[in-house]
Amino acid sequence: MAIAVDIVTPEKLLFSGEVDMVTLPGTNGQMGVLHGHAPLLTTLDIGEIILHRAEGNEFLAVSGGVVEVRPDKVTILADTAEPSEEIDAERAEAARTRAERLLADNPPPQQLPEIMAALRRSSLRLKVARRHQGRRRSEGLAYEETTQQG
Q1: Count of beta carbons in the 10 Å neighbourhood of residue 136
Q2: Tens digits of residue pLDDT in 30-41
Q3: Which CATH number is associated with domain 3-83?
């Protein structure tokens, strides 16, 4: 049985639809939510949201927020979130390189949390972008196989 999911950022509604399951990066750990889940209100960490559907999974990078789980609906209010297909991998790679360089320069202790968060966000964005690239590549191979057979 499907569960309704809404993913909203301050800028826009990113997703509204039904999925078989949603996987979320809660601040207390990764969690999976199915239809009929017990009511829950929790915060999100920097991580990956996975929308599990029969026709394939969708991946989003999220950087904090809150989630309300009800037995028939999940509402995610994300600080920031990006679907995998909208992530600029080159920009994310540049941000990760910048953060790594800042860490290597032995920054003052008060700057460490901000630099570490930037490193986590950019690494996550790269991971999610690569998932999309891998999915596109596998879809292309499947298309080539069917056209060669036909």
Answers
A1: 12
A2: 999 999 999 999
A3: 2.60.15.10
